């Protein structure tokens, strides 16, 4: 293998130098590199090189090794040894090499020891020390141009799984070192998409995943995959986004398909008069799909167009009026997500869109609220009640009057089967009637309407709290 694993920069993991021939002032601890039980002193040859390692923490280590082994395995040490003997008169003098600023003394020593191993023994050593340590050994091997060590580390690392921490460590190493392309092709294939791949000609993976999930039949698998893919696509994901990210057009394409499927299944359910259980399951599945897509839209801040889409579902609203409460409440689950998103400022849309949504879906929400309480499916009812009131308060006062009067009539009749919007109602009352007399005519009509209401006990108590 050619010496293509040279460092891109001169910032080595350690630097090397040939020290003066004078004796050291301090006597650091000696370590004889022999690979005990594998290489004898005779096999290792004469230990004629003294290598003084100094760590970044100030600790020192001295290794005594054979110059022939060093020169045969490392181009860097071969050059240093040759330079040393150029400056001394006798070749019998022990060669002294300084290696300062070593990141990890133990890893450096371990890398030198591997020079004394054959291929099989070296592979076993890497297997024993594991991936994380082997990446450190690979870095040192590349730094000292220890070709056999580099090849063995790369072969081992390519053949084993990595943790995310190990993957990031390896990715960082490849940004600082350049290795032979033929040797590292397989590892790089696990770390990066090949540059030769034209991303525009590849199918959109994210879109395929979303389509597959919305058509998944198994409920448990679908829920598991929804959680997985949403975590990958959300803005707070730890995973980097690239060309495979889901576009707004792709997302709305899937969403339109789900809404169309919901309309079709609702028609089937109405025609069959609930003689079969399948339409119920399919309606619930499509609503779950729409709400899941809506959550992804909200996270990407691209959900404002869906408000208009949902407000335009006149056919669904007509079928809602004639459908069984057992299935029609599923539609209000979608409306509930929109109300909560608007009230919590996760969704901003124009007045026309908000007004259209409330005019179409506010009445169905009042009718379905009792079923939403009994079949919550993760919905927080208190949050929903607060959100409905807050969303109403974003409309002009004259539009609020119409919707609050509709709520008032329904609440006074059905009590707990209707959302309690008393807090928002008080705010509307204060804004409308306690800031001058310009709304006197509206107030008169409102009071006249109250006199004609037949109230439930619960509603009467709530109205009494309001002072009415």
How would you describe this structure to a colleague?
With 468 residues, the chain is mainly α. Among the domains are: 30-191, Potassium Channel Kv1.1, Chain A (2-Layer Sandwich); 396-468. It is 62% helix and 5% strand. The chain has helices at residues 41-44, 67-73, 75-86, 105-114, 119-143, 147-159, 164-176, 181-191, 205-214, 219-233, 248-272, 278-299, 304-311, 314-322, 325-343, 351-374, 381-392, 397-414, 422-433, 440-451, 457-465, and strands spanning 30-32, 49-55, 60-65, 95-102. It has a four-stranded mixed sheet. A hairpin with a 4-residue loop joins β2 and β3 (60-65). It starts with 29 loop residues before the first strand and ends with a helix. Pathway: Protein modification; protein ubiquitination. One of its GO terms (biological process) is protein ubiquitination. It comes from Mucuna pruriens (Velvet bean). May act as a substrate-specific adapter of an E3 ubiquitin-protein ligase complex (CUL3-RBX1-BTB) which mediates the ubiquitination and subsequent proteasomal degradation of target proteins. Keywords: Ubl conjugation pathway.
């Amino acid at each position: 293998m050619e010496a293509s694993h040279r460092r891109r920069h001169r910032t080595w993991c350690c630097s090397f130098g040939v020290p003066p021939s004078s004796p050291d002032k301090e006597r650091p601890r000696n370590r004889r590199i022999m690979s005990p039980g594998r290489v004898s002193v005779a096999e290792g040859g004469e230990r004629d090189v003294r290598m003084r390692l100094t760590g970044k923490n100030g600790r020192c280590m001295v290794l005594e090794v054979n110059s022939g082994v060093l020169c045969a395995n490392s181009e860097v040490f071969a050059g240093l040894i040759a330079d040393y003997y150029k400056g001394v008169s006798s070749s019998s003098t022990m060669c002294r090499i300084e290696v300062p600023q070593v990141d990890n003394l133990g890893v450096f020593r371990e890398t030198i020891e591997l020079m004394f191993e054959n291929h099989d023994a070296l592979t076993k050593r890497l297997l024993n020390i594991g991936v994380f340590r082997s990446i450190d050994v690979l870095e040192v091997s590349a730094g000292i141009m220890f070709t056999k060590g580099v090849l063995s580390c790369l072969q081992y690392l390519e053949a084993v799984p990595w943790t995310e921490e190990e993957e990031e460590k390896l990715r960082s190493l490849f940004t600082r070192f350049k290795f032979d392309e033929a040797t590292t092709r397989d590892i790089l294939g696990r770390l990066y998409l090949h540059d030769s791949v034209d991303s525009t000609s590849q199918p959109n993976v994210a879109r395929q995943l979303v389509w597959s999930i919305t058509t998944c039949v198994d409920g448990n698998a679908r829920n598991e995959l929804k959680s997985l893919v949403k975590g990958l696509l959300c803005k707070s994901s730890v995973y980097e986004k690239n060309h495979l990210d889901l576009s707004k057009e792709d997302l709305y394409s899937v969403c339109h398909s789900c809404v169309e499927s919901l309309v079709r299944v609702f028609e089937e359910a109405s025609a069959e008069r609930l003689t079969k259980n399948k339409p119920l399951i399919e309606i619930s599945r499509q609503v779950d799909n729409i709400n899941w897509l809506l959550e992804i839209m909200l996270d990407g801040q691209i959900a404002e167009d869906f408000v208009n889409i949902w407000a335009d579902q006149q056919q669904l609203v007509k079928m809602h009026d004639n459908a069984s409460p057992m299935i029609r409440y599923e539609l209000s689950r979608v409306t509930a997500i929109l109300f909560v998103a608007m009230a919590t400022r996760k969704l901003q849309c124009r007045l026309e869109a908000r007004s259209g949504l409330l005019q179409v879906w506010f009445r169905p929400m009042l009718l379905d609220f009792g079923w939403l309480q009994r079949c919550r499916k993760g919905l927080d009812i208190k949050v929903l009640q607060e959100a409905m009131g807050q969303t109403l308060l974003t409309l002009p006062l004259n539009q609020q009057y119409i919707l609050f009067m509709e709520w008032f009539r329904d609440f006074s009749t059905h009590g707990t089967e209707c959302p309690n919007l008393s807090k928002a109602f008080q705010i509307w009352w204060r804004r409308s009637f306690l800031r001058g007399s310009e709304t006197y005519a509206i107030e008169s009509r409102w009071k006249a309407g109250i006199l004609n209401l037949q109230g439930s006990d619960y509603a009467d108590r709530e109205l009494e709290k309001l002072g009415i």
